Amino acid sequence: MEKKHYNVVAAVIMKGRRYYCVQRTRSAFPYTSEHWEFPGGKVEKGENDYEALIREIKEELDWDIYVGRRLGTVEHDYPDFSITLTAYLCRPGDGEPTLFEHIDDRWLTRRQLPQLNWTEADRKLLELL
């Protein structure tokens, strides 16, 4: 049986010299459960990356962001699915994020980022920063 493949977008949100990171909730997949990631999600049929990123951040964090340039794309095969993950440099809008689908969040400097237990795909994004 062929694994599912997803196109996913990630918002690398910067404020000053800090990056916004979120911790996933516990899930059935031990390789992503409670791991850290840049917020974002799946690109739905008929959506472009920009629209998907705005929608996902609004749904997951009730937050408006400004999407800037594309940082790059990584591919990753997990045991149960594979993803193409495209990251965009973003700026936060007004207000603060509200965690609806994550258990923690942090603003960290570039040097602090490797200290977190990242999902494997998001760990690859760190090399693009």
Give a description of the structure.
- Strands 1, 2, 3, 4, 5, 6 and 7 form a seven-stranded mixed sheet that branches.
- This protein has helices spanning 49-61, 120-126, and strands at 4-15, 18-24, 36-37, 40-42, 65-77, 81-92, 102-109.
- A hairpin with a 2-residue loop joins strand 1 and strand 2.
- Helix content is 16%, strand content 44%.
- It has 129 residues and is α+β, with helices and mostly antiparallel strands.
- The chain contains two helices and seven strands.
Helix content: 10-25%
Distance between the termini: 36 Å
The major pleated sheet works out as: 7 strands, mixed
> What's the number of helices?
2
- Outline the low-pLDDT stretches: none
Assembly of the depicted chains? single chain
